[in-house]
Amino acid sequence: MKRRIPKRYIVLISCTDKAPITFSFHPLAVIVPLAIAIVTPIAWVGMTLYSHSQRNLMLTEEAADVLQQLNALDAEVKNLRERAGLPRTEFAPTEADPKSSPQGGTGTPVEAEELLETANSRLPALSADLKQEIEPALENTLLREAARPTGIPLKVTTEISSPFGLRRNPFGRRSFEFHQGLDFTGAYGSPVHVTAPGTVEKAEWSGGYGYHVVVNHGYGYRTLYAHLSKLEVSQGAQVNNDQIVGYLGSTGRSSGPHLHYSVYRNGTVVDPQGYLD
Fold first, then answer.
1. Cα–Cα distance, 217 to 147 (Å, whole number)
2. Out of 69, 112, 121, 169, which could bridge 60 as a Cys pair, Cβ 3.0 to 4.6 Å?
3. Which residues does 64 contact at the CB level (< 8 Å), separation at least 6?
4. pTM of the full predicted structure?
5. Do 118 and 201 have their domain in common?
6. Is 7 part of a structural domain of the chain?
7. Residue 102 included in any domain
8. How far, in Å, CA of 48 to CA of 170, rounded?
9. Which domain CATH number covers 261?
């Protein structure tokens, strides 16, 4: 049999020698406020705990993202140090990917605030390293790299007609000689371009090289362009990369139109093949 909640309750309070006290009430009027009084604190505590957990989760994700970016920045700093010729400095171990790197053992959970503090503590060290060591060293490295001769001094179709090193003397039949550069073929009058910026050290005539130009690029690099038909620069001039210094010819000790190209490193002639790319 289905029970029904009475519409109203009557409470009688009697006392000796006094008139009884009666009052009535509806049960829902008591149950509802009581339920609210009980549920409200529980709901507040639940919402507070949920909000706190969500905040910790967001902070943890934020800290992990910051640490990941710092690891990437740290890797770039190490590459810059290596390029600048500086010793590598370890700021913190790189975070491994657990999906690709086997890992194990016990560990202590780290709070989100501690993760952020760790990330923030690494920024000053990275910034100081960039400003105090890497930037000056890298600037010097970039200048040195810019001074390095690169490429072929002719922009026309060409090939090497005589390599660097020992070769048969083109004028001595059976004798041999050491060739101190590369000979490039080309049409007479083709523009000859300098392979790095620098200062014209020589722009003159000699019996062996005919009209020739020597450019000092700094950092121990010098280049020679010989057998030119005409000079386009003079001694002491500043030249930019790819600037025309003269025109291909056959002056001096030459068997036909070509460009002789030499590269010197710290006063010693080296094979230009290593500087063509």
1. 5
2. 112
3. 115
4. 0.60
5. no
6. yes
7. no
8. 93
9. 2.70.70.10
What is the C-alpha radius of gyration for the chain, rounded to an integer number of angstroms?
Answer: 43
Q: How many CA atoms within 13 Å lie on the side-chain side of 169?
A: 8
Q: Which residue has the tokens 């913190």?
A: 92
Asked whether the predicted pLDDT for residue 59 surpasses 90, the reply is no
Q: Which domain holds residue 39?
A: 1-91+111-147
Q: Report how far residue 272's alpha carbon sits from residue 152's, in angstroms, rounded to the nearest whole number.
A: 9
Pick the more confident residue, 237 or 110: 237
Nearest to 147 by CA among 204, 81, 192, 199: 199
Lowest mean pLDDT segment, chosen from 17-21, 91-95, 219-223, 225-229? 91-95
Neighbours of 105 (CB within 10 A): 4
Those residues whose C-beta lies under 8 Å from the C-beta of residue 153, and which sit 6 or more positions away, are 184, 192, 193, 194, 195, 223, 225, 259, 261
- One domain for residues 21 and 129: yes
Closest residue by Cα to residue 62 from 115, 17, 16:
115
In a 10 Å sphere around its CB, with 0-12 CB exposed, 13-18 middle and 19+ buried, how is residue 209 labelled? buried
- Per-residue pLDDT reduced to its tens digit, 82-135: 777 777 665 544 454 555 556 656 556 666 667 667 767 777 777 777 777 777
Residue 140: strand, helix, or coil: helix
Nearest to 222 by CA among 264, 174, 253: 264
Largest CA distance in the chain: 153
* Structural domains of the chain, count: 2
Q: Residue 86 carries which side chain, given as an amino acid letter?
A: L
> Domain for residue 129, yes or no?
yes
CA separation, residue 200 to residues 213, 259, 267 (Å): 7, 18, 16
Q: How would you write 58-125 as a 3-class SS string?
A: HHHHHHHHHHHHHHHHHHHHHHHHHHCCCCCCCCCCCCCCCCCCCCCCCCCCCCHHHHHHHHHHHHHH
**One domain for residues 116 and 197:** no
